[in-house]
Amino acid sequence: MSISSRTARTVRILGVASASAALALGVAGNALACNISEFSAVAKCDGGKGVIVVTDVDASGTPANVSVFLENNSADARKVGVQEVKGSALGTTVTFAEDWQPNATYRIRVKAGHQVDADIQPNLTTPSRACTTSETTPPASDTPKPSNSPAPTPSSSASPSGTPSQAESTAPATTGDNSPSPAAGSSNLAETGASSSTPLIAGIAGGLVVIGGGAVFFGMRRRGSSKANRAN
User: Fold this and answer.
1) Is 79 a residue whose pLDDT tops 80?
2) In CATH, which of 3.20.20.70, 2.60.40.1180, 2.60.40.2150, 3.40.190.150 is domain 36-125?
3) Are strands 116-119 and 63-72 parallel, antiparallel or unpaired?
4) Where are the domains of the chain?
5) Quick one: which of 124, 98, 127, 131 has its CA closest to 110?
6) How would residue 21 be classed by pLDDT, with cut points 50, 70 and 90?
7) Nearest-angstrom CA–CA distance, 22 and 12
8) In degrees to the nearest 10, what's the CA dihedral of 71, 73, 77, 83?
9) CB-CB contact of 50 with 99 (8 Å)
10) What is the 3-state secondary structure (H, E, C) of the chain?
11) What is the predicted pLDDT for the residue at 29?
12) Between vectors from CA 73 to CA 72 and to CA 79, what angle results, nearest 5°?
């Protein structure tokens, strides 16, 4: 059975169309597939603290796990963390809080199902200047300087609190009267009006009165006798 030329032409047209459709589907599938080139990372500061931000621009939205490692001598020194991200045409980001040091190196690993299992190339190198804030590094003019002078010691001559000093507790001496102060015996006599020697003084005074009276009496008698003798 022979095939007509018209049938052969139709078969060729269908073959070419099928191949074109398969090629278009293949290209579209590759365009929608997740790829490591759709991931990027950057180290920056957020409010004075260091962060690492990973961006996924995979339009297919394939879920991917992103792991961040701190490198030291081309080896993993510490795992910072792992987060899941679903990309978008506008880009989806995940942020890792990391107090990174200047010029440090980080490896970012991306795993998205069976499509991607690779590192973002090249490795991430942090900026040469660390994140700082005004709170952690205040200006020098606002920083109080401690005083090196020793604390003052209280003077030994100072009176304790609440205790009157000698000048306050002692009444000032009177300067207007220069007369000598009376003796202790006179002071006692002035206060009591008598002393233990008062009877003796009174007795002596009485004796002197009697002697004086007797002397006057005998004197007058003798004078009278003299006048009588002159008359005779």
Assistant:
1) yes
2) 2.60.40.2150
3) unpaired
4) 36-125
5) 124
6) low
7) 15
8) 20
9) yes
10) CCCCHHHHHHHHHHHHHHHHHHHHHHHHHHHHCCCHHHEEEEEEEECCEEEEEEEECCCCCCEEEEEEEEEECCEEEEEEEEEEEECCCCCEEEEEECCCCCCCEEEEEEEECCCEEEECCCCEECCCCCCCCCCCCCCHHHCCCCCCCCCCCCCCCCCCCCCCCHHHHCCCCCCCCCCCCCCHHHHHHHHHCCCCCHHHHHHHHHHHHHHHHHHHHHHHHHHHHHHHHHHC
11) 45
12) 30
Place of tokens 């609440």: 162
The two three-digit tokens of residue 229, written as one number: 């003798």
Strand-pairing partners, residue 68, are: 81, 108
Structure tokens at 145: 């300087």
pLDDT mean over 7-11: 67
Query: What does the pLDDT read at residue 221?
Result: 74
| Residue whose tokens read 């278009």 | 24
pLDDT of residue 57: 95
